[in-house]
Amino acid sequence: MKRATTRREFIARSSIAGAGTMLGMKAFSPDEIRSSADEKTIPVRPRYYRWHVDQGVEWTEANTRHNQLNWQIPVSQTALVLVDVWQRHYIKDPEERAEMIINTKLIPLLTSLRKSGIKIIHAPSPEVAVTSPNWIRVQTKEQVFSKRDTWPPEEFLSSTGEYKPFAMPYEPMEEVRQKMAPLTFHPKVLPQEGEPVVANGAELHEYLKQNKLLFLLYAGFNTNACIINRDYGTIRMRDRGYRIILVRDCTTGMESKETQATLAQTNSTILNLEMFGCFTVASDELIKGV
Questions:
Q1: 137: region left, alpha or beta (phi > 0 left; psi from -120 to 50 alpha)
Q2: Does any domain span residue 147?
Q3: Is 65 a domain residue?
Q4: Residues contacting 211, CB < 8 A, separation 6+
Q5: What is the 3-state secondary structure (H, E, C) of the chain?
Q6: Is CB count within 10 Å lower at the N or C end of the chain?
Q7: How far separated are the first and last CA of the chain, in Å rounded?
Q8: Among residues 270, 263, 208, which one has the least CA distance to residue 235?
Q9: What does pLDDT average to in each consecutive run of 10 residues of the chain (290 residues)?
Q10: What domain count does the chain have?
Q11: Are 119 and 211 in contact (CB under 8 A)?
């Protein structure tokens, strides 16, 4: 009887091996992304985590590592998406880190990219977006505040009735949070004339399609929350087919008691994106490139 092929043998022989392929993403070579000779471009070295190893090297986790590519990304097809760059946070630490990043990293980057002609797109949450005169109100099938499906039932979502025992415990500080000033744009990162504000992923996608944009630089907060979980965030837009490049020093996450000292939540989220189909760069590299 013929011996069954092991999973390791299949991966080793397969020309489509790798986590990117398992996620349904197209594999591509470093030389694949090119632009025409007269196109204004920005040189970048996007970093990602390489699941593959060189020939002759044992295919183990310990032998995998980061890698960088050499791209010339076309300015006309590139945009910076600013995710939830708010004027406050209810927790002291991420607010202080975000303020430092905004002042020392994000504002210089934003100034440089605006001069370069790269489009700046603000994605500040639906509730904030709809208050802005720059909100684009793109007509999509998906409404900004869409009606919820009838399942799961309302009592389950609100933890009332028979589902009351499964409610989260009462937190008195939540009342303090709810009484804070409404969230809005950070005063130093306000949308300028002509800079669109989008309320959800559908609007972002329609704007990108209308303007033929393919490369999305991401900056904002928080790394392990809105940057990855919003429908206009890195993961959803990666799944829509865009090239996602997180500016890794223009973001910070929400840390725990155990991770705060090393920013392990922030760093592990950045690594997770690099492992699964996204890329990262440093802000000074972009500034130098433009």
A1: left
A2: no
A3: no
A4: 79, 119
A5: CCCCCCHHHHHHHCCCCCHHHHCCCCCCCCCCCCCCCCCCEEEECCEEEECCCCCCCCCCHHHCEEEECCEEEEHHHEEEEEECCECCCCCHHHHHHHHHHHHHHHHHHHHHHHHHCCEEEEECCHHHHCCCCCECCCCCCCCCCCCCCCCCCHHHHHCCHHHHHHCCCCCHHHHHHHCCCCCCECCCCCCCCCCCECCCHHHHHHHHHHCCCCEEEEEEECCCCHHHHCCCCHHHHHHCCCEEEEEEEEEECCCCCCCCCCCHHHHHHHHHHHHCCCEEECHHHHHHHC
A6: N
A7: 62
A8: 270
A9: 56 46 48 61 97 97 98 98 97 97 98 97 97 88 73 93 94 91 97 97 96 98 98 98 98 98 98 98 96
A10: 1
A11: yes
Residue 100 included in any domain: yes
And the tokens for 23? 């996620």
Write out the residue range of the structural domain in which residue 77 sits.
73-139+183-289
Per-residue pLDDT tens over the stretch 81-103: 999 999 999 999 999 999 999 99
Q: Compute φ and ψ for 186, nearest 5 degrees.
A: -65, 135
In a domain, 119, yes or no: yes
**pLDDT of 157-210, one tens digit each?**
999 999 999 999 999 998 999 999 999 999 999 999 999 999 999 999 999 999
Token duo for residue 32: 């694949």
Tracing tokens 């919820």 back to the chain, one arrives at 148
**Hey, what are 89's tokens?**
């946070």
Instruction: Assign residue 223 the CATH number of its domain.
Output: 3.40.50.850
For tokens 């890195």, what's the residue?
234
